[in-house]
């Protein structure tokens, strides 16, 4: 996915956990952080507390959606996905992408991977890997500030 491209439709999930959201529900009012993770990804688990802190800190200003992207057969176990999500406090909607439908739309090859969309649903920032949460926070804040400036 390239910068400024619109968010793809969130269709094709094997299952949704916590709640289900649509692209139309996410765009229009506030920016969205979409993060890809996997139960077999150590870096994902290490970064999750920061992602959750982010979700809670900006809950009124930012949509946060998790995408579980399996990397092996073992990652397809729904009970394990639910267990790891609970252990790591993932309360945001989780799109379970066992058939890689969304992964392919995003052309994503990484976990963890973070996609920041502005309130109009256009991609503004992409980042992969476990480090760089400060950079992610800067980018999200930039998009949030633009949103607030546009509303005032």
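^ Assign residues to that structure.
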């Amino acid at each position: 996915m390239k910068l400024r491209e619109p968010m793809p439709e969130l269709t094709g999930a094997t299952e949704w956990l916590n709640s289900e959201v649509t692209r139309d529900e996410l765009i229009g009012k506030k920016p969205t952080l979409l993060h890809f993770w996997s139960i077999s990804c150590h870096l994902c688990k290490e970064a999750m507390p920061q992602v959750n802190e982010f979700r809670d800190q900006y809950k009124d200003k930012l949509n946060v959606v998790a995408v579980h992207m399996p990397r092996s057969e073992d990652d397809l176990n729904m009970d394990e996905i639910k267990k790891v999500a609970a252990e790591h406090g993932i309360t945001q909607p989780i799109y379970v992408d066992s058939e890689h439908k969304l992964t392919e739309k995003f052309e994503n090859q990484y976990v963890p991977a973070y996609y920041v969309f502005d309130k109009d649903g256009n991609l503004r920032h992409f980042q992969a890997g476990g480090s760089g949460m400060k950079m992610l926070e800067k980018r999200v804040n930039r998009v949030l500030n633009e949103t607030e400036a546009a509303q005032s």
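The CA atoms of residues 28 and 119 lie 5 Å apart.
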